[in-house]
Specification:
Largest sheet: 2 strands, antiparallel
Number of helices: 2
Helix content: 40-55%
Radius of gyration: 15 Å
Shape: extended
Distance between the termini: 41 Å
Number of strands: 2
Structural class: alpha+beta
Strand content: 15-25%
């Protein structure tokens, strides 16, 4: 399984990263399980290093929420 981590340009909100993970499986349920395991591990590791993780919503997220 190949795993690539790329740091993007830092901003006032922090250091964004991109994760690329390739699996040999083509079974969707197995792929989702692997993806969830990776994210769970990253969330646990961030707390160990006293890092804060967040996702910044876009303006379109707020617009669609106001329409419902």
């Amino acid at each position: 399984m190949d795993f690539i981590v790329r740091e993007l340009a830092s901003s006032s909100t922090g250091l964004p990263i991109e994760l690329y993970v390739f699996t040999k499986t083509i079974k969707w349920n197995e792929y989702e399980r692997i993806q969830a395991g990776i994210i769970d591990h990253l969330l646990a590791a961030a707390a160990f290093f006293d890092l804060c993780l967040f996702q910044e919503p876009a303006g379109s997220d707020f617009a669609s929420a106001l329409r419902t």
